[in-house]
Amino acid sequence: MTTGADLRAIRKRKPLVHQITNYVVMNETANATLALGALPVMAHALQEVEEMASAASALVLNIGTLSDDWVEAMLLAGRAANRAGAPLVLDPVGAGATRYRTETSRRLLRDLDVAVVRGNSAEIATLAGRAAEIRGVEAVGAAGGPELARDAARALGCVAAVTGPVDHVSDGEQTISVSNGHELLGTVTGTGCMSTAITGCFLAVRPDDPLEAAVEALVAFGVAGEEAAKKAKGPGSFHVALYDALYGLDPDKLDKQAKIQ
């Protein structure tokens, strides 16, 4: 695992990560991307998404707030990124909660070459054709284990990153579990979306190995969560400390703090 080295590469190269994401977490994901060392750009207008995606090092699609225009923008941007060779990560927010979200996620996965899909256990299980319970955008019930990530990767034809108390990432053959993180990550809106954005950052410098990039992203975000929790008194102070922790991640120490198996 080369998380520290790839974090150093992100900070040196400052890759442009184009994100089509929802208004609720746009500020959070942009701040997290910038704090890590990459450059965020938020663009969803039909008039510019193809041009922006063609210039980006990675594309992040987040379906948190949907409309037909946003879906069309995602398809245009995704095709442009595919033509340009930029890796694409999809966050299927709330897949399983409504038919529109589920069908949109499946359409994006069908029509685009997606490198990584990152979601909670209910979202990923829904897309993989398994039974799941979701309330709003939150998974309810048992968390998905490594077998869910493996089966989803095989069914969807891309790396599946299933996040929860323990994260599981698989390309259908190899499955890696990441135990970094802190329970306070579950008390702040948008931390799942942040992890997707950071996955885009690592994909930008490891486009040839989406499995490793996804694992590295979750290790980095999990370690940042652990560091932020040391200074936090609750969700509010944790939210602020999380940006500081991402900014202060030490590439030389990061690999030593990784909890993977």
Question: Quick one: biggest sheet?
Answer: 8 strands, mixed
Name the average pLDDT: 94
How far apart, in Å, are the first and last alpha carbons?
11 Å
Rg, please?
Answer: 16 Å
Strand order of the biggest β-sheet:
2-1-3-4-5-8-9-10
Order of helices and strands: HEHEHEHEHEHEEHEEEHHHH
The tally of beta strands, per DSSP, is 10
Shape type? globular
Total helices: the number is 11
Q: Structural class of the secondary elements?
A: alpha/beta
| Helix content bin | 40-55%
Q: How large is the share of residues in beta strands?
A: 15-25%
Low-confidence stretches: none
What does this structure look like?
- By secondary structure, this protein is α/β, with parallel strands linked by helices.
- Helices cover 51% and strands 15% of the residues.
- α5 (99-111) links the parallel β4 and β5.
- The longest helix has 22 residues, at 210-231.
- The chain starts with a helix and ends with a helix.
- The model has no long low-confidence stretch (mean pLDDT 94).
